[in-house]
Design brief:
Alpha/beta knot; seven-stranded parallel beta sheet; elongated
Length: 225
């Protein structure tokens, strides 16, 4: 196989791999192979040696995160880290208190590219889909498709997650986690989500930033399942 572009530069310039080095290759249908690298001046290739047996896989619990788009470039961080933590899908959305930003179709292209790079870096076989930005109403329309919906809200009753999550996760195969913007959800938005079957949760007495909230919950879910 021929290795081109950023992958070739990373192997030869960043990782300083040379002819004869062993690498691992994941193909388009998630098969893994050991391969031997061959580096010439302007050409990088690899010979596939054998197919590797996968001893682990992404969690059997498929978690989709609906994340209110934060200001600046913070969504880049969210996409990268959620991908590393094994998220199934990412749904950026706008809500009542989202800080306005100029619409840009290029953002989704960038986020999907970041997800692909993070999946490669973390050794994931699948790349999570980053859908087009939608509004909060469209996110609520998604609720019926999931076994559980968890909405993180700083004004929720501060009960310990360890007392709630085991029961909420029992029998669930798909979960939608909804995270609000810097200003949080309004009471009306939280009520609308509850009317759609969402369980409103608090992460505790400390209020974390919007770009931190989903990562905290994903880490906990990974531990529990």
């Amino acid at each position: 196989m021929t290795i081109e572009g950023g992958d070739a530069r990373k192997l030869t310039t960043v990782l300083r791999r040379r002819t004869g080095d062993q690498i691992e290759v994941i193909d388009s249908v998630a098969r893994r192979f050991s391969a031997k690298l061959h580096v010439e001046k302007h050409f990088v290739s690899a010979i596939l040696c054998e197919q590797l047996q996968v001893h682990y896989d992404d969690s059997a619990l498929a978690v989709t995160v609906a994340q209110a788009v934060p200001k600046g470039q913070k969504m880049d961080f969210v996409v990268e880290k959620l991908t590393e933590l094994g998220v199934h899908e990412i749904v950026p959305f706008l809500s009542e208190r989202t800080i306005p930003q100029a619409p840009s179709g290029a953002r989704n292209t960038r986020w999907q590219r970041l997800a692909a790079a993070a999946a490669q870096q973390s050794g994931r076989s699948e790349i999570p889909d980053v859908v087009a930005v939608e509004d909060f109403g469209a996110v609520l329309e998604r609720c019926a498709a999931f076994d559980r919906v968890l909405l993180l809200w700083e004004l929720a009753e501060p009960r310990r997650l360890r007392d709630q999550l085991p029961e909420l996760l029992r029998g669930a195969r798909s979960i939608l986690v909804i995270v609000g913007p810097e200003g949080g959800f309004s009471s009306v938005e939280a009520e609308d989500a509850q009317n759609r079957g969402a369980h409103v949760l608090s992460l505790g007495t400390r209020i974390v930033r919007t770009e931190t909230a989903a990562l905290v919950l994903l880490a906990i879910l990974n531990y529990l399942v």
